[in-house]
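Bug report

Summary: structure tokens for Ribose-5-phosphate isomerase A differ between web form and batch submission.
Environment: batch mode, default settings.
Steps: 1) Submit the sequence below via batch. 2) Compare with the web form result.

Sequence submitted:
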Amino acid sequence: MSENLSPIDQAKANAARKAVDFVESGMKVGLGTGSTAAWMVKRLGERVRDEGLRIVAVPTSSRTAALAREVGITVITLDEAKWLDITIDGADEFDAEMNLIKGGGGALLQEKIVATASDRMVVIADSAKEVAHLGAFPLPIEVIPFGVNVTRGLVEELLGAFDVMGRRTTIRMNGSDPFRTDEGNFILDLHLGRIGDPRQLALMLNQVPGVVENGLFVDICDRVVIGHADGRVEVRDIHDCSIDVTELPVGDTTNIFANIEE
Ligand SMILES: O=C[C@H](O)[C@H](O)[C@H](O)COP(=O)(O)O
């Protein structure tokens, strides 16, 4: 293990390293956002540089786009790509059905568009992200700034009809101003505690005027790669219900990423 990484970062880096093995030359790749996805982007850049891996990539945020360019990955737009072979992204929570909560970093809108436009979505995570029921992590929804408090009221009213533990909502802040997404929108965080029916909630939230998209990813993720600090990596696939545990070779995770700062 790298001396420089905390156990949690090592686990994230291990998941990223394993997932990047699924990428082949000629692929169009969706690049997620967040601290786990950043490891994946760095590792992909390494493969481009050291192995001559030929890929083009569509980032899901301005942050990821900047990092991808920095590590030498060719970045194109989703409209140029039209469709992607694979998207690799992090998650805030995932359950046994591979339903996800995403958007902790505010990038859920582009992430959902990109993942949906991909043959396969692979989630990379440390084991702390696995939950029996989604909802302990506040569910982010992207809303337009116009009439945000009216939208917020409508969302709270809607939540009254759902099997959730809590109904408190907060507008995400960045210092004393509301946090702005890449599209200039706001994020409402829904403190639900536990979500009884993620599929129904995801559908209904998007019916509220002012809501652009919500961070529930239902039936989008195909595979979850769970990294552990000791080098073990578990790969679960929703289609063949397989679970595969491998151990990254000793040395493979040593200082691989240490020279690239996020
Ligand atoms: O908006 C951000 C994304 O959905 C992230 O993928 C998610 O928040 C997980 O981030 P991290 O890997 O930093 O925990």
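Above is the batch result. After comparison, the two runs are identical; trailing whitespace caused the diff. The chain has two domains: 7-129+219-247, 139-214. The longest helix spans residues 35-51.
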